[in-house]
Design brief:
Number of helices: 35
Shape: globular
Structural class: mainly alpha
Radius of gyration: 35 Å
Length: about 800
């Protein structure tokens, strides 16, 4: 009995506690509503042309708040089709406010919803097949219908993805004819309608912009017969129209009224006129040749200069500094810095230093002017952020790196909901202060106020934080945060772009990538485009998706569109560089990689990509050792920025040292790595290969192989299905000449991890070491079709194949 009494007492206390929590929640909600209405009233009053003395709004009665709450709940219940709940709420609303003007509308909506549900039930009941004597026939018809619906839905979805909206709607209509209540088909029809309307609106806007540009364009110059200039005595050059030789102009005819039986040829007449000029032709032609050469040289230099540095201002955005220091809002300070960089990046006339360079200067205590100048910026932005209860306070300053003087400074106080609009306002001000002319479209884009909620924007900034630090946090954390942002505001285009990016990273960061991540990335990107997203990141992520779908031409096109919108988008330039490598356009790949390094000089991935591209050029073209030396320099710059220098050095850096015949230096790096990571069988295998290529005694490199073999077998003892370890065991057996054991280990690797990209690359390396080029190229193509990794192609195990035409054809698309 005592136990029952204690249980009852605990239940009573829990009930009281829950009641107290509910009361406090209601009080807090009432206060929140009162505060929002007060702020709305103050904001409305501040917009009036005449400012009367402020009046305190009368207190909101609790009964009115209850009525408002009942209306909101009733609206939600009707939208979701919960008729029983809606009936209860309508009865409560009648009791609380019998004279409410909205009762008639709510009653009418409830009747309509109930009628629709009743009709749907009747339709479903009448559409059910009547039982017949043959029990198997209904089941067969049902399966046939199911297959037909699935086929139609797949065709509709395919046509929708190809932006063939009318055809897609026809397929959806057929599906709904067969299954009127098919929720997927209804949802797809709604998406198609939205996309079709959006496409029509975009087409209309494009037509309006073209018309506006045509109206703003200067009138075309009509052809007017030019009178020959009067030849002065000091005009030793003769007729200037002949000297120009512009194809758009013609030499005016001679004003000669004397009829001639036949006109001499044009060349003869020109030669005759030139012969009358009493100056030496050789010096003139020499001068002209020099002028032409200077003009061409200037054009080439300008093209090269503009390819690396945009022609106008360059700016460095220092990360926002939290005052007081608070690491819990790093997602906010980093997030607004990245958002401002992305906004500035959408104008090609300005060079914006990348986000990695910006974040590397977090809490920078040195001379800001010199730091900004060292990365090539002629201005920089410094700002401080203070988090307050209802929003943030920002103090912003733009300074010149030449004089160190302030170009502009201001302070702002905004709510979280107003923060994205404020960032666009700051971007517009920076453009004005740096004298960057914006097009009307660019200015309108930066003037459009944000429509998202504070909760959605906060979730979006947290999601971007996880994506920036993907090496620190699991991919699932980024995916979950992005989904929260989309759930908070399904019409927030940037949140859909972030979710698509997260799915792409999830696909890339696993050795056994799931195609579902690509499908989800494409779906989120379609939603973002349908909502009007046209940023460089949108085109960049679309390009990555197409690259992994093996449509390399479309990928290159999308990457080029991304860098056309934002030439300073270092990530877009880096991705474009890899796409050019896949297409075999090595010179263009080098230029794109150099631009990525120029615009984000403290980004380790930019330096690594440039090193890979230069190494690729040095290995697979006639560029020679100088290019490989340049690759080595790029790796060394990346090494300075790497978070784990021993891991970075033992990877691409060691391979390029081997290609330059610097075996001792490569062995030194790998030995240093092994001293830190004593169970890294990958580094033991690479060290054995370096010793073998350097001509070391066989016992020396075989002893290293045995060490790698012991580590792998110990690993397999705890995890027999480790396909990656098995593939390296096959490589170790191959290096030791144990081909039979190598094949057996590789078969086990492929059986346990058939989709693992690393296993496929290692299988290609194993067959190359066996001398089986056909099998090597077959598995190499399989690996590249799943994920193209330049570092794998540059592995030292493929060194003897680099001049083989079949190999070169296999690694390019």
């Amino acid at each position: 009995m005592a136990a029952d009494d204690e249980a009852k007492a605990r239940d009573s206390e829990r009930t009281k506690l829950l009641e107290e929590i509910r009361k406090r929640a209601e009080e807090a909600e009432i206060k929140r509503i009162e505060e929002e209405e007060r702020k709305a009233a103050d904001k409305h009053a501040s917009r009036q042309p005449v400012s009367p003395p402020p009046q305190q709004p009368p207190p909101v009665p609790v009964e009115d708040i209850r009525v408002v709450d009942l209306r909101q709940q009733l609206t939600i219940a009707l939208d979701k089709g919960k008729t029983e709940k809606a009936s209860e709420l309508l009865a409560e609303l009648r009791t609380a406010s019998p004279n409410d003007s909205g009762l008639v509308d709510f009653t009418k909506r409830l009747t309509e919803v109930q009628g629709r549900q009743q009709r749907a039930k009747e339709t479903k009941r009448t559409s059910e097949p009547k039982p017949k004597e043959d029990v198997g026939q209904p089941r067969i018809r049902k399966e046939v219908l199911k297959k037909k619906v699935a086929t139609l839905f797949e065709n509709a979805n395919s046509q929708y993805q190809q932006e063939k909206y009318e055809t897609a709607l026809n397929f959806v209509t057929e599906v709904l004819t067969l299954e009127p209540e098919n929720e997927e088909a209804l949802g797809l029809r709604e998406q198609i309608d939205k996309a079709r309307q959006l496409a029509a609106r975009i087409k209309e806007e494009e037509a309006q912009r073209r018309a506006a540009r045509a109206a703003e364009a200067p009138p075309a110059v009509t052809a007017v017969e030019a009178k020959p200039p009067a030849k002065e005595s000091g005009d030793v050059w003769g007729n200037k129209e002949i000297a120009h030789g512009d194809p758009e102009y013609t030499i005016p005819p001679e004003a000669d009224t004397t009829p001639t039986p036949q006109k001499p040829p044009m060349l003869d007449r020109v030669a005759e006129r030139v012969s009358k000029i009493r100056i030496p032709l050789r010096p003139v032609l020499t001068v002209l040749a020099i002028l032409v050469a200077l003009a061409v040289g200037y054009y080439v230099v300008e093209r090269i200069r503009n390819a690396v540095f945009p022609p106008k201002s360059s700016v460095l955005i220092f990360p926002a500094e939290a005052v007081p220091a608070d690491t819990s809002i790093d997602y906010l300070t980093e997030g607004i810095s990245e958002e401002l960089i992305n906004s500035l990046n959408q104008v090609p006339e300005i060079r914006v230093l990348g986000i990695a360079t910006s974040l590397s200067l977090m809490n920078h205590s040195g001379n800001l002017v010199q730091t900004a100048r060292s990365v090539g910026a002629n201005s920089f932005l410094q700002w401080r952020l203070t988090k307050v209860a209802e929003g943030v306070d920002l103090a912003v300053s733009l300074l010149d790196t030449v004089s160190g003087s302030s170009l502009w400074s201001s302070q702002f106080h905004v709510s979280m909901r107003e923060l994205p609009t404020l960032l666009n306002e700051i971007a517009r001000t920076l453009f004005d202060k740096m004298e960057i002319e914006l097009t009307s479209q660019q200015r309108n884009l930066l003037s459009t106020p944000s429509q998202t909620t504070a909760e959605a924007y906060d979730a979006f900034l947290r999601a971007r934080y996880f994506l920036r630090h993907i090496d620190r946090y699991p991919v699932d954390s980024a995916l979950h945060a992005c989904e929260n942002a989309v759930h908070a505001d399904s019409l927030y285009a940037d949140a859909h772009v972030a979710l698509s990016t997260a799915h792409v990273l999830a696909f890339e960061r696993t050795n056994s990538p799931r195609r579902s991540h690509l499908d989800n990335a494409a779906r989120s990107m379609r939603d973002a485009v349908a909502l009007g997203s046209k940023s460089s990141e949108t085109y960049r992520v679309r390009g990555i998706i197409e690259q992994y779908r093996l449509d390399y031409d479309k990928a290159v096109q999308l990457f080029e569109e991304a860098v056309a919108i934002a030439p300073s988008d270092a990530e877009a330039q880096r991705r474009l560089s890899i796409a050019y490598v896949i297409k075999g356009q090595i010179d263009q790949a080098v230029k794109a990689a150099e631009r990525a390094v120029s615009d984000d000089p403290r980004n380790v991935h930019s330096h690594t990509t440039l090193g890979l591209v230069l190494q690729y050029k040095g290995e697979y073209t006639d560029a020679g050792p100088d290019t490989r030396e340049a690759a080595l320099h790029s790796y060394e710059e990346g090494l300075k920025l790497a978070s784990d220098r021993s891991e970075y050095a033992s990877a691409e850096y060691a391979d390029v040292l081997v290609s330059l015949q610097l075996h001792d230096r490569a062995a030194e790096i790998l030995n240093d790595r092994i001293s830190r990571m004593r169970l890294s069988y990958v580094d033991y295998y690479k060290l054995a290969r370096v010793y073998q290529l350097a001509g070391k005694p066989i016992l020396q490199w075989q002893s290293v192989c045995m060490k790698a073999k012991d580590i792998i077998e110990a690993r397999l003892g705890t995890n027999p299905g480790d396909g990656f370890a098995l593939s390296y065991l096959a490589l170790v057996h191959t290096l030791m000449g144990e081909f039979k054991e190598a094949i057996a280990a590789n078969v086990r690797a492929q059986r346990t991890s058939p989709e693992d990209v690393e296993v496929l690359y290692n299988t290609a390396r194993m067959f190359q070491r066996h001398g089986d080029k056909t099998q090597c190229l077959e598995y190499l193509k399989k690996a590249m079709d799943r994920q193209y990794r330049p570092v794998s192609i540059l592995d030292m195990d493929f060194s003897t194949l680099r001049s083989d035409p079949d190999f070169l054809q296999a690694i390019t698309k």
